[in-house]
Write a structure and sequence with these properties.
This protein is mostly beta strands. The protein is about 0% helix and about 50% strand. The chain contains no helices and 11 strands. It has strands at about 1-5, 10, 15-25, 35-40, 45-50, 55-60, 65-70, 75-80, 90-100, 110-115, 115-120. Strands 2, 4, 5, 6, 9, 10 and 11 form a 7-stranded mixed beta sheet that branches. A 4-stranded antiparallel beta sheet has the order 1-3-8-7, with no helix packed on it. The chain is globular, with a radius of gyration of 13 Å. The N and C termini lie far apart (about 35 Å).
Length: about 120
Amino acid sequence: VQLQASGGGLVQPGGSLRLSCAVSGLSLDYYAIGWYRQAPGKVREFVASISWRGGNTLYADSVKGRFSISRDNAKSTVYLQMNSLTPEDTAVYYCAVGRRPYSGKEEYDYAYWGQGTLVTVSS
C-alpha cells in the first residue's frame, strides 16, 4: 500500500491550498482516511478524517470551518481543502488509511501512512 501526498507549498497568510492523497495497492471503498500534521518541534496532530463513503467527517478544533476533507473513491484519492491559512498551519501534512470504515483522531486508528507534504504559510 502506498500513499502519495501532494499539493503542499508556500502560501501567504489568508491564502488557500488543496492537498491530495493518492492511494495505491488498496481499495479505498471500505476505509476511512485521515490527515495529520506535524509542525517543527511539535508532535504530530490530527487534522481531519472522513469515513468510507464520505458521510462522516471529523475535524480538529483548530481547523474547523477553514479546512474541508473530501474523497473520490473511484480515483482512490482524498483531498484536504485548506482556506484562511495562518502561519500556525505550517507543518508537514500526512495522509493515512484507517483500519475500519470509520476512524477517529487516534493514530492507532490508521494502518498506512504517506510520506507527507510540506505546507508553509508565510508572508
